[in-house]
């Protein structure tokens, strides 16, 4: 039975402007309760226990008064770098951008990384995000998660194009998180142009949960095919191009397949420059793709053919990437950009990308409301119909009014 159809604020202090932490509400009866993109209870009731787990999902009874709210699964941001800050000046060319990001990161202390990660978590929570695929380059994200227990997967980042078997295994041993806080653990061998074959294999031997930047740039494909170009020059300059290096002679996806890391639980990020046969390879492997509309917009790239990927059954998730290549961290903005980039996708399909496909891309129980899962959801004002509500939601025309994270209520006053 639903106990109280309200989201009640408690006596604790707000954790950041625009949201306050409340008591553990027990239940909510709302005009619409969307379990996922396909299933909506109208009116519906969601009920969770003191540990923050969902214990009931059902249609509301006639005797229960439903609030004029829609409950949606918390959004899943499949790809983020929480510790990166906006650059002082926008840089649109990729390699100078990488140099600017590395320089900016190098100036930061451990306390800075924790502070910035926490700020990013709060910003994402305000947009209704409750699970993240975080690329943790320093190991400091876990400390931020103790303050704000977001769900998702924390991928420790690996780089080292020069690393041979022994050093590669040692780095993986050192980096694989023994404690990922409120998230699940994973590894992110950064990209085929920044990670040696031995390091890719060592990561794949340690965990099935990998996130890899893949086929992001034409220059990446050129380097893998020919061993030449700006990435070869950069690696040589850094002293990371091994003596006698020979290029794989194929594109990024085929190279990952040959290395044995293109698997069902691998998340490929960006995939801007796929080659003939790559989409079929990814689909056959059962791997997922994360696209980042804000980054596409920032670098003024051509949106990739997401509809074609989805038709072949590839789970395509949305990510914000970082502050360094986006105007802010908001999954609402990513959804609105996705709607503009791929107008052929129905609102339901866009919601799927921002929820259950994100869960697939992170190999975790995220992006849908189910008994036994964490009570992670958001609320918006109900419109005349569910269809109107969903359409307004994905186009960022309807502010998030509340977020419940692990059963705890966060009131949201300013979403956009
Ligand atoms: Zn990234």
Could you please describe the fold and organization of this structure?
The protein has helices at 94-106, 110-126, 141-147, 165-175, 197-206, 218-226, 230-237, 252-259, 278-285, 293-298, 306-311, 331-341, 347-354, 356-362, 386-394, and strands spanning 19-24, 27-34, 40-41, 44-48, 54-59, 67-73, 75-80, 129-136, 151-158, 184-189, 210-214, 266-270, 288-291, 316-318, 377-381, 402-405, 408-412. It has 15 helices and 17 strands. It folds into 2 domains: 19-73 and 369-412, Roll (Urease, subunit C, domain 1), CATH 2.30.40; 75-362, Alpha-Beta Barrel (TIM Barrel), CATH 3.20.20. β9, α4 and β10 form a beta-alpha-beta unit. Strands 1, 2, 3, 4, 5, 6, 15, 16 and 17 form a 9-stranded mixed β-sheet that branches. It is an alpha/beta fold. 33% of the residues lie in helices and 22% in strands. Zinc ion is lined by residues 79, 81, 135, 213, 269, 321.
Structure in a nutshell:
With 416 residues, this protein is of the alpha/beta class. The protein has helices at residues 94-106, 110-126, 141-147, 165-175, 197-206, 218-226, 230-237, 252-259, 278-285, 293-298, 306-311, 331-341, 347-354, 356-362, 386-394, and strands spanning 19-24, 27-34, 40-41, 44-48, 54-59, 67-73, 75-80, 129-136, 151-158, 184-189, 210-214, 266-270, 288-291, 316-318, 377-381, 402-405, 408-412.
């Amino acid at each position: 039975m639903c106990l109280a159809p309200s989201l009640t604020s408690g006596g604790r202090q707000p954790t950041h402007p625009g949201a306050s932490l409340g008591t553990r509400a027990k239940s909510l009866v709302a005009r619409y309760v969307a379990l996922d993109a396909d299933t909506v209870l109208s009116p519906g009731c969601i009920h969770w226990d003191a540990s923050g787990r969902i214990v009931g999902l059902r249609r509301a009874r006639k005797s229960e008064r439903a609030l004029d709210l829609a409950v949606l699964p918390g959004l899943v941001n499949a790809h983020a770098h929480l510790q990166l800050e906006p650059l002082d000046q926008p840089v649109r060319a990729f390699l100078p951008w990488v140099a600017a990001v590395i320089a900016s990161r190098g100036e930061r202390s451990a306390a800075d990384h924790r502070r910035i990660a926490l700020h990013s978590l709060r910003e994402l929570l305000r947009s209704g995000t409750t699970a993240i695929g975080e690329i943790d380059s320093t190991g400091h994200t876990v400390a931020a998660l103790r303050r704000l227990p977001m769900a998702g997967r924390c991928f420790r980042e690996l780089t080292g194009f020069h690393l041979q078997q022994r050093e590669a295994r040692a780095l993986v041993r050192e980096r694989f998180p023994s404690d990922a806080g409120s998230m699940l653990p994973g590894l992110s061998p950064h990209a085929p142009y920044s990670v040696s074959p031995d390091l890719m294999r060592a990561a794949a031997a340690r965990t099935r949960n990998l996130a890899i930047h893949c086929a992001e740039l034409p220059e990446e494909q050129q380097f893998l095919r020919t061993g030449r170009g700006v990435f070869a020059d950069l690696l040589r300059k850094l002293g990371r191009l091994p003596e006698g290096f020979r290029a794989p002679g194929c594109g990024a996806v085929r190279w990952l397949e040959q290395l044995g890391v293109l698997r069902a639980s691998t998340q490929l990020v960006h995939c801007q420059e796929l080659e003939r046969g790559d989409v079929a390879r990814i689909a056959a492997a059962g791997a997922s793709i994360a696209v980042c509309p804000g980054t596409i917009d920032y670098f003024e790239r051509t949106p990739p053919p997401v509809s074609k990927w989805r038709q072949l059954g590839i789970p395509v998730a949305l990510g914000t990437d970082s502050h360094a290549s986006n105007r802010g961290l908001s999954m609402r903005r990513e959804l609105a950009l996705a709607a503009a980039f791929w107008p052929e996708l129905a609102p339901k399909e866009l919601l799927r990308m921002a929820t259950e496909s994100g869960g697939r891309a992170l190999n975790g129980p995220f992006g849908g409301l189910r008994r036994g899962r964490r009570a992670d959801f958001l609320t918006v004002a109900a419109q005349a119909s569910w269809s109107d509500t969903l359409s307004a939601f994905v186009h960022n025309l309807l502010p998030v009014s509340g977020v419940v994270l692990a059963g705890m209520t966060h009131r949201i006053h300013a979403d956009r």
